[in-house]
Amino acid sequence: MPRVVSVYFPLLPIDRIRRHASEPLPVDKPLVVVARSGSKRWISAADPIALKLGLRVGMPASKAQAMVADLLMVDAAPAEDAAVLEKLALWALRQYSPVVAVDGSDGLVMDTEGADHLQGGEELLVSGLVNRLHAHGLTVRAAVAETWGAAHALARLLAAQTTVVPVGHVMRTVIDLPLVALRLSSEIIQGLRVLGIDTIGKLSAMPRAPLTLRFGPEPARRLDQMFGRVAEPIEPIRIPELVEASKSFAEPIGAPDTIARYVRRLVGQLSARLAESGLGARRCDLIIHRVDNTRQYLRAGLAKPVRDPSRLSKLLCDRIQTIEPGFGIEKMVLVAVFAEPLEERQVASSLIEEEIADITPLVDILGNHGHRLFRVTPVASDVPERSVRRISPTAPATGQTWANKWPRPPRLFANPERIEVIALLPDQPPAVFTWHGKRRKVVRADGPERIFGEWWLRPREFHAVRDYFVVEDEQGERYWVFRAGDGIDPETGSHFWFLHGVFG
């Protein structure tokens, strides 16, 4: 089932101007973008402050200037806006989906069928996308639906930053939206309103023949596209810098063995072209064009630049069973959407056989099956939960090591869990503690190990103290627990007890 993400940038010209201004523009002053045609000048975009003051898109610039004295006015630059949108499309192509296109002058559209699991699901995909764009100073809304038309309409007409329409719920979601959601011309919309048709639901209830006779085929076509009755393929963005190989078939193919054979041929061609450019692929997309005018795709990500045909072929061919050829495949395109320089290195000869363990092939296989891989590395911090961070499984060693003065549990909780404890203050370990509703009697204990707060980084931790104990219960299970505070002074902590890790 196709899943389409529409990304809408309602203030793209405003955001571009603020991000690329030679000097920071005052954030408390209204800002508008002024377009011109001959002697006519009008507002083509306005920031929220200007809108609150009564300015509107389409308003003559002279009238806006008369209404607001300290108005900031910048000339429109459609070419620069289009260049920003194209860069955003290429970024989304490399990060989220093989099928990404520019949608008008204010948005992007991408087909994420089969790609959302790499981001943890559709909710995490769109929320992560919106958050990353917000971090770069862009105002954005995004919607996911089964069709381009539905996602386009919801991203633009709903106030929510992210909207995910469940499969099969498109009609009930869009039925009450106004006609502007259908991407019809203003003349057609005005004509329909004269007839009392102002929502998608009312339009869909009308007989087709009279509508087509009066307004042409466009209203019915847009309705069918929105409801998924007619396909609306997305033509993905491509630039000359992308290395690709393609194969068109005189007769459609569909057998898995045949698909695998041609995939290996395409990989061979792509690897040869990468070698000519001195590049290695970090991400490859196999786009399947079916005879019913729909597409499927496979994405293969790699931990480091690669152009080994056998390795690339394995990553793609291992997932051929996910391809549904339908009535047949008429074209396949293999694109290296993300490539990096790759230099051949000569292995020095040695009398001693040295075994070099390369885990990147395993990382690639697991990563392309939806697993999110990482390894942990030490961080210079006395606070246990801050002394470790996640890094890429193939990242070089950081050179940091953990201190081994006191034992640390192999399973450390990200957030310490509160426990009920019976213990003598200030320095005695727990005699009994209750965790997850189970009472445990302590038979052995070691400690305390006192850890102080990092007051030089967090002033609130100037007096903070934790006293850690390694305790063992009657079943031989060992736990790492601590008391927040020194047991005497309330300023050092709450004196509550927590379980922070488990040994063994």
Describe this structure in words.
- The protein is α+β, with helices and mostly antiparallel strands and 504 residues long.
- Among the domains are: 81-227, no CATH class; 243-341, DNA polymerase, Y-family, little finger domain (Dna Ligase, domain 1), CATH 3.30.1490; 411-503, no CATH class.
- Helices cover 28% and strands 31% of the residues.
- The protein has 14 helices and 20 strands.
- The chain has a 6-stranded antiparallel barrel with strand order 15-16-17-18-19-20.
- The two termini are 45 Å apart.
- The model has no long low-confidence stretch (mean pLDDT 88).
- Keywords: DNA damage.
- Its EC number is 2.7.7.7.
Overall residue-averaged pLDDT value: 88
Which overall shape is indicated by the principal axes computed on the Cα atoms? Answer: globular
> What portion of residues belong to β-strands?
25-35%
Tell me the total number of β-strands.
Answer: 20
Give the N-to-C terminal Cα separation.
45 Å
Descriptors for this entry?
504 residues, alpha+beta, five-stranded mixed β-sheet, 14 helices, globular, DNA damage, SulA_CellDiv_inhibitor, Rev_trsase/Diguanyl_cyclase, UmuC
Briefly say what this structure is:
The chain has 504 residues and is α+β, with helices and mostly antiparallel strands.
Set down the secondary structure blueprint:
Blueprint (H helix, E strand, L loop, with lengths): L3 E5 L3 H9 L10 E7 L2 E7 L1 H5 L8 H7 L4 E4 L2 H18 L3 E5 L3 E5 L10 H14 L5 E5 L2 H10 L4 E3 L5 H5 L11 H9 L5 H5 L3 H8 L2 H10 L15 E11 L2 H22 L1 E12 L4 E12 L2 H9 L11 E13 L18 H8 L7 E4 L9 E4 L19 E13 L6 E6 L2 E15 L12 E9 L4 E7 L12 E7 L1
Parallel strand pairs: 2-4, 7-8
Antiparallel strand pairs: 1-6, 1-7, 2-3, 5-6, 9-12, 10-11, 10-12, 13-14, 15-16, 15-20, 16-17, 17-18, 18-19, 19-20
Helix pairs in contact: 12-13
